[in-house]
Backbone:
């Protein structure tokens, strides 16, 4: 019986990849004033970024309640006796706690393991994809949990921010607080360190940012999975993918759009690359 894999919508896994690998994606919620939307379900990315840049109301975000995970667990327990849940960093959201709390609320013999990935976006997504492939190949839950813990330090996400305004406003700036004084004049590159946002470097232009993303990937000699994602600039993502195709097969580069919930903090113009390093022999 195949282990069922569950993650959240901040993994930025596309619907076709999720469907193909049998991954259940639990949505977070984004709210504009009195209107609440499920991430990528009742609001898609185009609608979100339009409202983010045109609506006077600043959006807020909420993790799924434990009851949502209970429903997912009960449904999947009819198909398997082992479930593995991998969430975004608990320092960025309460999603991990919701998923964990839901375990004790399920009356089933199904074994459920919940792991905090300590990352977000495709930093999380590439781990989940690798684990789902292993599950389809027949790996058991113990093997898959070991795989997750081994993959977390091999997952490297860096993100280019066109502005820090949204990250600062949303209170998710983490260890990058020192950048705030120069918010207007710089284009920061951030990474995820110890589960929260952290400064990598700061640049003066978008083109320098794209070069930095490319050179970051070029610094790895053994890549298992690679992803490029954008908020509002698909043409920049395509151009970067073309450049990266000299380093890694183009058809294997995952292209995704930064989810509405992550976009609440990343803002328009953001771009990210994630490398999942291959295991060393």
Residues:
């Amino acid at each position: 019986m195949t282990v069922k894999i569950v993650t959240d919508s901040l993994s930025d896994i596309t619907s076709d990849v999720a469907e193909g690998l049998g991954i259940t994606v639990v949505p977070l919620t984004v709210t504009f004033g009195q209107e609440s939307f499920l991430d990528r379900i009742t609001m898609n990315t185009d609608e979100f970024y339009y409202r983010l840049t045109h609506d006077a109301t600043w959006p807020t975000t909420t993790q799924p309640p434990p009851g949502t995970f209970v429903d997912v667990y009960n449904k999947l327990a009819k198909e398997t006796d082992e479930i593995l849940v991998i969430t975004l960093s608990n320092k960025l959201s309460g999603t991990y706690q919701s998923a964990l709390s839901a375990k004790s609320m399920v009356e089933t013999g199904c074994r459920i393991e919940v792991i905090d990935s300590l990352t977000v976006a495709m930093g999380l997504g590439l781990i989940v994809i690798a684990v789902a492939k292993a599950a389809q190949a027949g790996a058991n839950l113990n093997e898959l949990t070991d795989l997750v813990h081994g993959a977390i330090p091999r997952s490297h996400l860096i993100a280019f921010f066109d502005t820090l305004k949204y990250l600062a406003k949303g209170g998710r700036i983490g260890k990058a607080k020192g950048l705030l004084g120069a918010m207007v004049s710089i284009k920061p590159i951030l990474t995820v360190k110890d589960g929260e946002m952290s400064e990598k470097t700061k640049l003066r232009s978008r083109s320098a940012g794209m070069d930095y993303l490319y050179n970051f990937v070029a610094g790895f000699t053994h890549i298992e999975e690679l992803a490029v994602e954008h908020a509002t600039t698909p043409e920049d993502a395509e151009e970067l993918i073309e450049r990266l195709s000299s380093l890694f097969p183009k058809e294997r580069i995952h292209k995704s759009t930064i989810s509405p919930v992550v976009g609440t903090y990343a803002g328009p113009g953001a771009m990210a690359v994630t490398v999942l390093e291959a295991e060393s022999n």
User: Anything to note?
Assistant: The longest helix spans residues 122-136. The CA atoms of residues 85 and 114 lie 5 Å apart. The chain has two domains: 4-153, 154-277. Residues 154-277 form a domain with the Hypothetical Protein Tm841; Chain: A;domain 3 fold (CATH 3.30.1180.10).
